[in-house]
């Protein structure tokens, strides 16, 4: 029997995996705060433990993929493992059990994004196509998930998010079995590669920018639901807000490639970071839920453009023999160190003040990253204009 178009299966995989993320993580913090009644500091540890585990484990998945040359098999195993781990939240009662469960999910989750991104990126480079148009199905899944699970939580209770997470992870495992087996050609050599990358003009500064801009973006997935409820919204309202926010990413990811060619990578990155920072600052003034819903579409311009543009910038400036290492380091700084720091700090700020202080802090840090991007664009005008000539 002729296999279906591999692009269809990559789109399906991104849809279901990000459906799982969208259905669990934005509502998990609400569950831990309202149902389990953990403190902000405890919630901060649970939401930040994942990024730390990813920093330690992600390179091992990469090396295992390089060694076996079977990344899609690893994706299948990791998807099933994540689903089973998420289901164990239903049986957690003690704080340490929640920490352990979060660690187990992160163990498997650390394989999902980098391996699937690598497969999609390598496939589109070999066969032609637009990575952003495949990756945007993750944004679709995330948006639909929070809306569906937010409404389901209002009807059946927050425990439903754990059932939903397990089911869609298993669905993702099915799609991963039919994805192309695009093994990366470059070996990730973090120690030697990092030493060389630190000499690449612009790369060290961009790591700082990634920390300042992408860290709050990742942490927002955990704390945006808390903000909605603080402002007087419901669980269904949380789902509606994420539907608008994540859904707005879809068209921007679709247009990202053309806009980067027209305006240049650093120009797009600066605009995305600046708008993201303004959004966080606005939320710190405790707006009415209606205004939060209305401004969620800013996420499309910020995240929908920043994610593909940042990945392209890293792969463009890195020497060919250390491109895989550059992507691994970039992911570790953004998804790992940045997400850990801004998730942990959010929990502490909630205990000391409120969720409003969290978004004020996010805004200041993100605008600092935008300022550094302006400086980087000034220092590298050839990168700004190279695609526009």
UniProtKB/TrEMBL annotation:
PROSITE patterns in the record: MFS (PS50850)
SUPFAM superfamilies assigned: MFS general substrate transporter
GO MF, one annotated term: cytidine transmembrane transporter activity
Residues passing through the membrane, by range: 12-32, 38-61, 73-92, 98-120, 132-150, 156-176, 197-217, 223-244, 265-285, 291-315, 327-350, 356-378
Domain of life: Bacteria
Keywords from the UniProt entry: Cell membrane, Membrane, Transmembrane, Transmembrane helix, Transport
Location(s), subcellular: Cell membrane
Major localization class: membrane
Record-linked Gene3D superfamilies: MFS general substrate transporter like domains
One GO cellular component term noted in the UniProt record for this chain: plasma membrane
Domain Major facilitator superfamily (MFS) profile residue range list: 190-389
UniProt keyword Transmembrane, yes or no: yes
Protein name: MFS transporter
């Amino acid at each position: 029997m002729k296999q279906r178009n591999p692009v269809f299966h990559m789109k399906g995989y991104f849809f279901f995996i990000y459906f799982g993320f969208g259905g669990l993580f934005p509502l998990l913090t609400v569950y831990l705060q309202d149902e389990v009644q953990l403190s902000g500091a405890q919630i901060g540890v649970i939401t930040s433990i994942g990024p730390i585990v990813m920093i330690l484990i992600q390179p091992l998945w990469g090396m295992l993929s390089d060694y076996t040359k079977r990344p899609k098999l690893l994706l299948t195993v990791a998807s099933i493992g994540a689903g089973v781990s998420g289901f164990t939240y239903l049986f957690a009662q003690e704080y340490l059990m929640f920490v352990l469960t979060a660690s187990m999910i992160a163990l498997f989750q650390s394989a999902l994004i980098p391996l699937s991104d690598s497969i999609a990126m390598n496939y589109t480079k070999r066969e032609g196509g637009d990575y952003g148009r495949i990756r945007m199905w993750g944004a679709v899944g995330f948006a639909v998930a929070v809306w569906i699970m937010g409404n389901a939580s209002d009807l059946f209770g927050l425990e439903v998010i754990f059932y939903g997470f397990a089911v869609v992870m298993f669905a993702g495992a099915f799609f991963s079995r039919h994805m192309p087996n695009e093994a990366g050609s470059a070996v990730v050599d973090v120690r030697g590669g990092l030493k060389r990358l630190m000499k690449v003009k612009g790369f060290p500064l961009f790591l700082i920018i990634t920390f300042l801009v992408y860290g709050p973006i990742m942490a927002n997935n955990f704390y945006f639901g808390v903000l909605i409820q603080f402002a007087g919204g419901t669980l269904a309202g949380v789902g509606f807000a994420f539907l608008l926010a994540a859904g707005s990413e879809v068209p921007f990811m679709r247009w990202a490639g053309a806009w980067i060619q027209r305006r240049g990578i650093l120009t797009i990155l600066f605009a995305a970071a600046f708008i993201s920072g303004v959004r966080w600052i606005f939320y710190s003034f405790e707006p009415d839920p209606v205004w939060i819903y209305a401004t969620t579409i800013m996420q499309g311009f910020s995240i929908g453009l920043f994610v593909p543009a940042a990945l392209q910038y890293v792969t463009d400036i890195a020497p060919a023999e250390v491109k895989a290492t550059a992507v691994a380091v970039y992911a570790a700084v953004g998804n790992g160190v940045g997400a850990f720091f801004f998730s942990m700090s959010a929990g502490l700020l909630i205990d000391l003040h409120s969720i409003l202080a969290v978004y004020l802090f996010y805004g200041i840090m993100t605008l600092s990253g935008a300022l550094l991007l302006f400086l980087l664009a000034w220092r590298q005008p050839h990168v700004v204009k190279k695609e526009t000539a």
